[in-house]
Amino acid sequence: MAATLTQRAGEGFRAGRPATTPRNGRRRLTKALHFLTFGAPGLLIYLALVMLPIVMTVRTSFTNRNPANPPTTWVGLHNYTRLLHDSDFTGALWNTVIVSVIVTVAANALGLAIALLLDRPGRLYNLLRSVFFTPVVLSSVVVSVIWQAILADDGLLDTVLRNLGVADPPGWLSDPDIALYSVASIITWQTLGFCVVVYLAGLAGVPTELLEAAEIDGAGRLARFRHVTWPMLAPAVTINTIMLLISGFKAFDQIQVLTNGGPGNGTTSTIAFQVVQTTFTGNHIGYGAAMATAMLVIIAALAVLALRILQRREVTL
Amino acid sequence: MRKRALLSAVALSTALALSGCAAGASDGGSAKGGSTVTLTFLTFETPNLTAKYWDDAIARASAKVPGVTIKKLVAPSADPGAYAKQLAASGQLPDIMASVSPNGFAQAGQLASWTDAELTDFVSPHSNPINGKIYQLPYNTQPIPLVYYNKADFAQAGITGPPKTYAELLDDSSKLKADGITPFVVGGGGKDTWADMYPLIAAVGADTYKADPNWLAEKAAGKAKFTDPAFTKAVAKISDLAKKGYIDTAGLSRSYADTEQAFRDNKGAMYPMGSWFAASADARKPSFDIGVFPWPTDDGSLAVPAYTGGGPVVSSKAPDVDLAKKWALAFTLDKTSSDVSVKTDASIIAIKGYTPPTEVGPVYAQTVDLYQQAVKQNAIVNSFSVETGDGSMPAGLAGKTASGVADLISGKTNADHFSAFLDNEWAKATQ
To answer: Using an 8 Å Cβ cutoff, are A278 and A261 in contact?
Structure first.
């Protein structure tokens, strides 16, 4: 179909027809007016509420804006060079990478496993799908408050462990060596339902004919998964990976409620948390804007890179 | 027909866009029409300071100052200062703000200062000046912290009375521990990192500030460092208490509310906390009697860290600054509100001629007695990190200090590293 259209256009050109006629011009004008009429309000809202704040943040990042220390002056790239030497920022970046990797890998793996288990008809499985999806619709703050009650040193989990004879159970949120992994696990738990739903949708799209053909060809269960199901799930893997990477990099609510960046100095601080601390607690609005801009660039670069890599292995039927 | 539909759509879009512009051009709600001025008032709610408390107090103040309509804003947490900063960053600083530190706002010219004539009703009218001016009404005094203790635990461990010297405190802690009782309950989990600060604030008050009341101002002026022995000595005491197992590290994952509950549940014998705990202790008495003593100095002399402030601040951009100040004064000087503040927050009201209600509880009474003794002996010192005004900590450093204290208690750092960390963070915060 595409080739036909190209051919026709070429024919028209060769015949020496003018590129635009008055009638075509009117049609284009009408189309442009349609676009402006129906698209402009949405575009304006998008520009005002998304693009403009981003532009203003980037602009602020080149200043030393600090309400407690006026006047605001242009400092060029100073805030960005400072980021490279700021242990709070580099520590938060490292924590963010750890959280993002754990969340992306663990939620993808567990989500796929659970989706494979739930990919069958029946009321029980429908109920289980809802159960797994419930944490996704809960507020992160609510989830964090619940997990804090479970993971605190005198919380539910350690109380159970003590009753089982564990004399000195781990400080899930108070041990600096463990707290970050606890937080990552909670984010994984909360995002798991989303992964399951995406994988279930992907599994529903795997043609049964292909699976049956593979079975007739003698492929076992594992071989069918490896050579048919897994390649067909590539778009679901892409969606989940990108969404989880972004979720991991944006982690804030859980940190704020569960650990406030601690225990101790910044052991669970993420970039998003550090941006808020620097901007609103420390009053360093210009420097905080530089952190936010750096975070935006890092997320965008990672998302594009992951998208390119993952889309290469997607199968189109 | 299509053309007409298109024209109608264009007209509708234009109208919507114009109406949007018109709405965006309004002043955001601070209407000034006729004889009534609308003022926004930032409050915060806690289990003690409920919505009803604020609504009733606002109504009483408004009745005394005609021509004002108050639009109450409620901070999303018990820290209205953080919310005020967010609002200020988007140009929406409220006209009047309760319990917001003026630091940062005042230097940026965002607050109106109070004149001596407006401060005549206050006991300490010149508390916490910023560049020589007062921006927050010095409404009440809070000793921060005192050590509240479980009298039954002390008796069980054979301790006859509260310690007078630091050596006695160590001795008592040893006896308590030997008897299977954790000496100190400390918090600091979740968003309440600040709750681990009180032993350090107490030690700095008793050691560093007792020896040099202006120590922090000297630090701000570059004449002192946290790594100086005068400060490190206090830090080392907290590190030592933790090493000896006198501070329960489990507290580092407890929220503030859970920490108070832990003391109530007898999970430790001593609870260094701000005087506001007295209200809770009296209102919901635990199964044991509570006593109170100041963190002891080495030589047994008295030192009580305290902070006077807590009243409203007024935006210099309020639609009618004079009227906003008049209303804030009426709100602050209202006797009924002060009575409620005494009962719910154990405030020591710093208004001349004020007498607290007769039905105050025993822990509040002990707290006030201790404070008055310290006033008589000229033994009041600043509360480290709680100070506002000239020479106080830069914004954000109190939070960093709290995170460092967690490292100190958990043994992840020592006194020298902690002090160097504070010097480094101070330099970063003032960069």
So the answer is: no
* A9 falls within a domain: no
DSSP state of B255: -
Summarised one tens digit per residue, pLDDT across range A244-260 is 999 999 999 999 989 98
Percent of chain B's residues with pLDDT above 70:
92
A104 and A56, same structural domain? no
Residue A32 belongs to what domain range? Answer: 19-60
CA distance B255 to B44: 19
Mark whether A89 and A53 lie in a shared domain: no
Please name the helix (run of DSSP H) or strand (run of DSSP E) that holds residue B142, with its range, or none. strand B138-143
pLDDT tens figures, A33-87: 888 888 889 999 999 999 999 999 999 999 999 877 778 999 999 999 999 999 9
Does residue A68 fall inside a structural domain?
no
CA B98 to CA B77: how far, in whole Å?
13
B151 in Cβ contact with B289 (< 8 Å)? yes
- Give the residue on B whose Cα is nearest the Cα of A173: B253
Whether A6 is in a domain gets the answer: no
Put simply, the answer to whether A283 touches B104 (Cβ < 8 Å) is: yes
Is the CB of residue B104 less than 8 Å away from at least one CB of chain A? Answer: yes
> What is d(CA B99, CA B311) in angstroms, rounded to the nearest whole number?
6
Number of domains in chain A: 2
Is this complex's ipTM strictly greater than 0.90?
Answer: no
Best mutation target, A281, A284, A285, to test chain B (most B CBs within 10 A): A281
φ, ψ at B183 (rounded to 5°)? -60, -50
Say if residue A154 is in the same domain as residue A39: no
A2 occurs within a structural domain: no
